Automatic annotation (TrEMBL):
Comp. bias intervals (Low complexity): 46-55
Protein name from the UniProt record: MFS general substrate transporter
Highest rank taxon of the organism: Eukaryota
Lipid bilayer topology: Multi-pass membrane protein
Organism: Phanerochaete sordida
Molecular function in Gene Ontology: fluconazole transmembrane transporter activity
Length: 594
């Protein structure tokens, strides 16, 4: 993992690259001695000679010499073979958990194929005009799947940290609700709207911002870094807000603008890891996502007790700001389409051939605005309500997500009101959920490595193979709710409800891992829409629960209140087992599922 390449591919590196007129942090195609194959100079532009003059120092000036050199030098040492950029039908294209949907959009819009055939014909005609800019071979070092294990692990850590730094913003605010209520002269329910608005923001933000990361001209890293910078700056007026009218819009904007990594972090991981390895790295990312809302009250409790509610926001500013500096200097682009697009831009400039394009550019040029709107805005709603598998998991995971924010209110009742914890001690009680999540991951790991992964190698994998962890989660989930609810009294040792929260985390982790991956495997062509639908639904549920949780627990009591939710969880318990046995039949009824 050479340091110059890490810096060059980062957000800051790209700024330096363009600000220097492409003289600093150059790519291999721009360095003296790099050999270009002759067919990239074959075009009829009158300005070919003038544009190609930039390539004068390169040996590729002489096509014959280029051809001879390409046979004697290795592509990995800075040389392109003559066939390096030609499409290779035998080589697998990059696959991602978040499927690139642009090329399949017409299949949904025009299921009978008439208009899709016309578009496909236009694309084929465009392809025939000039070679497609592709990878330099199966071992191309710029393809994210070919990065070293250390580099991919480093970027995985970055994605997890970025997700954590945004997610923690929702619950970091929670311990300050009482302080906000007193200082603004409002009710605690009104003060809790700060959580609701943040969660609503990151529920709706991906519908607008996340599709930008699928556009090759943008890519993932610039979207992450620009939105993260705005997120950091928004914390300043938030901390200085003097009334609820100023606070709530800023909280919504922060959630909205910080949402892309939460929605497409899994796609960034899928850009780098093969499907057999993806189950583990997605588990790591999910653990980081879980730790954000859980550790928020822990850190926020100490901050609020010491300095008041504004310090929860200042801590978020410091955490996210330091994260931005680190990531902006070291996070590379992971989108294969974006990497190839930038390569095409360089090759067009170096060769003077304006017809050099990537497959994604050609597909995007033949898509209408209506198709794009359908793909990003309408389809998630349609699939969320028309597909039984999607509807079930939306309801199930939405309930889990809502209960996570319910726990924030229940912990206040159980540990502050019943056991007389202070804010800092109450925050520490949330560490039971963190411990449960870690135990769940290490319990999940052997199954993923020794049971699930071999099925990929043997080519026997089917989507239902993702579901066995949900069998355990479906039991642990209601059991933890009853346990927590009926051990919440002041007469019961405080450690018991904390242990129950750890069991809840184990059940939630297993259900999330099974559900999210099962949805992705059932609908690989439309996975971005499927996961956007799930993200939107569960975030809306999570935004609603804080509004009634406190009254819910006070009016009914913690035990009866959680027993109601636990009863609903019991009613849903058979569904993972039914999907395991009959899921393939349900998928066969759908025109969207595979």
């Amino acid at each position: 993992m050479p340091i110059p390449d890490i810096l060059r591919d980062s957000f800051v590196g790209q700024v330096i690259y363009y600000a220097s007129g492409r003289r600093l942090l150059q790519y291999p195609e721009e360095r003296p001695g790099f050999v270009l194959p002759p067919h990239y100079f074959e075009h009829n532009s009158e300005n070919a000679a003038e544009n190609a003059s930039e390539a004068a120092p390169r040996k590729a000036r002489d096509p014959a010499a280029s051809h001879r050199s390409s046979r004697s030098e290795s592509s990995l040492s800075g040389t392109l073979r003559e066939d390096a950029l030609k499409p290779d039908p035998e080589r697998k294209r990059p696959s991602a958990l978040m499927e690139r949907e642009s090329s399949q959009a017409r299949e949904v819009l025009h299921p009978h194929g008439r208009d899709a055939d016309k578009v496909e014909k236009a694309e084929q005609q465009e392809i025939q005009r000039s070679p497609i800019v592709d990878w330099y071979g199966p071992d191309d070092p710029e393809y994210p799947g070919n990065w070293s294990f250390f580099k991919r692990s480093f970027v995985t850590f970055q994605i997890g940290w970025l997700t954590f730094a945004i997610y923690i913003g929702s619950a970091l605010y929670a311990p300050g609700i009482q302080d906000i209520s007193q200082k603004f002269g409002i009710s605690p329910v009104a003060a809790s709207l700060g959580i609701t608005m943040f969660v609503l923001g990151y529920a709706t933000g991906p519908m607008i911002l996340s599709p930008l990361s699928e556009i090759p001209q943008f890519g993932r890293a610039p979207v992450y870094m620009v939105t993260m910078l705005i997120f950091v700056l928004l914390q300043i007026p938030t901390a200085l807000a003097k009334n609820l009218g100023a606070l709530l819009p800023l909280r919504f904007l922060a959630g909205f603008i910080g949402s892309p990594p939460l929605a497409t972090g899994g796609a960034s991981l899928a850009d780098m890891w093969a499907p057999a390895d993806r189950v583990v790295v997605i588990g790591v990312w999910s653990l980081a996502a879980m730790c954000g809302p859980v550790l928020g009250p822990t850190i926020g409790g100490f901050a609020t007790q010491a300095e008041g509610w504004t310090w929860t926001i200042w801590i978020l500013l410091w955490l996210s700001g330091a994260s931005w500096v680190f990531l902006a200097c070291s996070m590379p682009e992971t989108s294969a389409q974006a990497i190839l697009y930038r390569r095409a831009v360089r090759l067009r400039r170096v060769t003077g051939n304006p017809n050099l394009k990537t497959q994604a550019e050609i597909e995007a040029a033949n898509m209408t605005m209506g198709e794009v709107a359908m793909m990003t805005l309408v389809r998630p709603f349609l699939l969320g309500f028309r597909e039984p598998i999607v509807t079930f998991w939306n309801l199930y995971l939405g309930m889990i997500y809502g209960i996570l924010y319910c726990f924030i209110a229940s912990f206040d009742v159980v540990f502050i009101e019943h056991h007389h914890f202070n804010l800092a001690q109450n925050g520490l009680a949330f560490l039971g959920i963190v411990v449960g999540g870690i135990l769940a991951f290490f319990g999940f790991l052997p199954w993923a490595l020794y049971s699930l992964k071999p099925k990929f190698a043997n080519n026997t994998f089917v989507p239902e193979d993702r579901l066995p962890p949900a069998f355990f989660g479906a039991f642990f989930f209601p059991a933890s709710l009853f346990w927590f609810g009926w051990t919440s009294a002041a007469s019961v040792p405080w450690i018991l409800p904390i242990m129950a929260s750890a069991l809840w985390a184990i059940g939630a982790f297993y259900l999330f891992q099974a559900g999210m991956n099962y949805l992705a495997d059932c609908y690989p062509r439309y996975v971005a829409s499927i996961l956007a639908s799930n993200d939107l639904f569960r975030s809306f549920v999570g935004a609603a629960f804080p509004l009634f949780s406190t009254a819910f627990f006070h009016n009914l009591g913690v035990g009866p209140a959680l027993s109601i939710i636990g009863g609903i969880a019991i009613l849903m318990l058979p569904v993972p087992f039914l999907l395991y046995k009959y899921g393939h039949i349900i998928r066969s009824w759908s025109k969207f599922a595979d």
